[in-house]
Structure formats: C-alpha cells, structure tokens
Amino acid sequence: MADASSSMEIVEGCRLPVLRKNQEHEDEWPLSEVLSVKEVSGRKLYYVHYIDFNKRLDEWVTGNRLDMKKLQFPKKEAKTPSKNGLPGSRPSSPEREVRKSVEPIPPPATTPARGKTTPKRKVEAVPLPIQVPPAIPVPSLPSPAEAPPAAVFPAVRETNTFKAREDHEPLTSLTTNGNARRIVPSLPGRKRKANGGPAEEMIKVLQYNPPQSATVFLPPPEDSQDSSDGIPSAPRMTGSLVSDRSHDDIVTRMKNIECIELGRHRLKPWYFSPYPQELTSLPILYLCEFCLKYLKSLKCLQRHLTKCNLRHPPGNEIYRKGTISFFEIDGRKNKNYSQNLCLLAKCFLDHKTLYYDTDPFLFYVMTDYDLKGFHIVGYFSKEKESTEDYNVACILTLPPYQRRGYGKLLIEFSYELSKVEGKTGTPEKPLSDLGLLSYRSYWSQTILEILMDLKPDNGEQPQITINEISEITSVKKEDVISTLQYLNLINYYKGQYILTLSEDIVEGHERAMHKRHLRIDPKCLHFTPKDWSKRGKW
Q1: pLDDT tens-place string over residues 445-483
Q2: Which of 201, 416, 428, 478 does the annotation list as catalytic?
Q3: Are 314 and 334 a contacting pair, CB within 8 Å?
Q4: CA-to-CA distance for 351 and 339, rounded, in angstroms?
Q5: Burial classification of residue 134, based on how many CB atoms lie within 10 Å of its CB (0-12 exposed, 13-18 middle, 19 or more buried)
Q6: CA-based nearest residue to 498, from 224, 219, 220, 201
Q7: I want to staple 347 with a disulfide (CB 3.0 to 4.6 A). Which of 273, 314, 396, 503 is the partner?
C-alpha cells in the first residue's frame, strides 16, 4: 500500500496501520509508530512499534505492509522535554496539559502616562488551582497487636449470608477479580465500633462454599504490583537493577541484536541490550553457553571453546536434584560472567536497566545437566544487602525453557533461600508482564496449599493469621494480602475476616498442582547465608 502514495515520505514518529498476523494467523492492521527508517540494497525498511502491544513484537517491515491512506504525521507539541531538559520521545502528560489549559494568559503591561500617581500593579500569571480531594486513610486489616480474636462459625451454604461491611470509614477500596479500582466514597452509615485487645486476629477458613461476590476492604499494599496499575512503583536509587524509564530514547526502544546462538538454541531477542556497537550489525551473535562470552563468528566461537575450561557457571553449586542444579555467583568475584549474564538478560527484560557494577549483587543460575555440561536455563539476582526485604532483583527464564515450570522453580528457590535466612522476601518492582503472571500464580498456589492443609481444631473451623502464612511461606505480608484480594477469598463477616474456599477454587488449585512436576527439595539445598553487613567490601 505504500507504493500507491509514494509521494508522501514516512519519517520517524509517523503513525499508521501496519499489516501483521495475529495468534490465529489472521491479518490485522494495528496502529503503529515508526521509530526508524533505513535503506538496505535500495529497499526501505521501517522499524515499527505496535501501539498498545508489547515491545517484544516490534519489528522491521517493508513498505508494502504499511497503510499510507491513514498516515499520521508527528505533531511538534507531542514531544515534551524530559526531566533533564532534553527532548524526549514520549507524549506529554495529561496533568501538564490540564495545567496549560487552566493557566490564564496575563494581559500585556502598559506604561502609565506621566504625571499620574496611580500605583503600579505587578501583573503575574497565577495558575488556577486544580481541585483535588484530600486523602483520607483507607481502612485495612487491624494490626496484630490491636485485633480481637475471631469467633468460630460453621461452614455456611446460603448465598446471601455474607453482606458487605457497612460500618467502615468514609472511603473503601473496591476490588473486582483482584484488581484494585479507584477509591470511591462510601455511603454514610454507622460508625465503626472500636476494637481492642492484645490477641492476634485469627482468620477462619471455610471450605467448599458457593462462590460469594463480596467487597474486599483491604487496601492494596504499597509494595504490591497489580496488572491493572497504570503507574509502576517508583524506582529505587540504591544500586538496583530497576529502570526508571525516564531515559528512554529511540535507540533503546529498538532491538539492536538480530539473533543470538547459545549452545543448541538460537534466540531472537525481544528488547534492546547494550552489546558493543560493532556486534549489532551481525546477523548472528554467538555466545559461549558456559562463560557467556560474546563472539562475532562461529569460527571465533569454536576457537574459544578449545580454550574455555568451564562446563558449568562459575561459583558454588548449592543445590542439585536430578539434572537441575543451582550455582551461587558473587558479582564481585566473577565480574565478567555477571556482566555477560546481565547483557544476555537485558535482551528479554524491558523493565530493567544494566549497570556494569555487579559487586552488590549475587546471581543464582539454574542449569540443566547432560553429558556436555551444565546448560543455563534461567537465573535470578538479589542484592547482598537489601533494606527493603527484596529477595529478587531480576529474574528470567530463557525463552526455550519457558512454559515448562522453570519460572516457578526459580521463584520457589528464592523463597527457600529466604526461609534459610529467616526472613520474608518480595521481588523488586516493577515486574515484567510475564514475571507478574508467574509470581501471581506462585503466590496463589503456595497460599492455597497452606489453607487446604489446615486441620480443624477440636471440631472447629481452622484458623490462621496473615503473619503465620507469611512466616510459613516467607512471602511478605503485603504480598499475602494482595494475593488473597486477587483470588477474592477474604471477606468480613460478623466482626471477623474469613476466607471462603469455593469448590471452583479448590478444583482449579488441584488441577494446577497436578501439572506442577518441578519442585524444590529443601533437603538438597546446601546453603549458608552470609552476613554481608559485617564485610567491609563484600
């Protein structure tokens, strides 16, 4: 379609529909943005980003896949300066647009006539205030020191038994399918009764009840990340591998590596990775699968393999069961391997930025063993000292091993390390889309496994506290609460919080656990945690 309107020149920033195949191999024309234009052998190629699609689908396309009839040229006012004053490529924020629209333009100051004593008035632009309702605290679970003990009730089967709690504070956080929605004022009602007492609040567990549509009054915790959140958590400033996305430009928005050969696999990168510039023009980038060194040709790789003595990642093997092993790698002692690992991981992680200072990090690499050696499957990294209880900084399962249970195995291993350390942990935010799905699934299965194993006490309904679930699983309390909300399990009934496990949830959990064959065996873990705070230089 581009040939029909060849008189119009496509430039960077243009938007137009582009032909692509969907999952059903049907033609579709999603709106796309042209990020770059190049000419190869007299033929123009366009690098396009499919708007509202994941960046991993971005690609170079030819002109015959462009719909020139709906071409939109970039607007100058769409580009706004970024935080450091340099022009950025992202659209202006809605808040800035609102402020522009409500600021009155001052009239030009006129010079008063001579001889008059009229006082001069200073004219200045005063922006109109934007009305923002005051923040009111949202009610949440009582703290363990203030919550009363819960009475025990038998399982109830009536559909209208559970009613929404009406005696809460003015604002409530409504949830639908576990996704937090905007906070809306509730209807005026009775004042909440004051509860006090030194005992922990117990949550009773009712199994095999019909599904209930109840309102959850627990606010989402600050550290939790929901898939519906429009704004990710603020990036950390303490050597974290999280990217704040404020430095994005056209270069980093484009994939720069065409293909990577790693052992017996060829990988097509999803995102930009800062490999040396001279390697980005190669059709294939070759990596040694044991030391992860990058080479420019197959002959260079073969020559390197004759000299490379590694057949497993450097570091200590701290876990082995069957063919699965985990190696602990110190980012200071094995700097080259750690940097090469970060370069490879950046090809498949969009939310992380790469720092060459790997000293503050530990890397845990999962491998699959055969007669040729230990082949990398995935890895996760963590800070040696984390002030915010983060037990994972970056986590990745390589594409050839995805959807085979290795992601949950990595997550489970990270929490096993936290159990040995005697801590609760949480992954660093923001999570990627696939990372969020994996963590949601792991948290749900782990918590449901705990709840379903509870035994009645003296014929009464089993009881458990949020803190007890957190201590058993080493999952941070905020993640436990957000998962219970996500599953829509927690309700408020007759002055107590209760968890209702419906038959659908129980059956779905049993099906998921039946498919989950890979599990971590704590007996095979040989790990001694180190107190990094006492080490002057790690």
Answers
A1: 999 999 998 888 777 788 888 999 999 999 999 999 999
A2: 428
A3: yes
A4: 17
A5: exposed
A6: 201
A7: 273
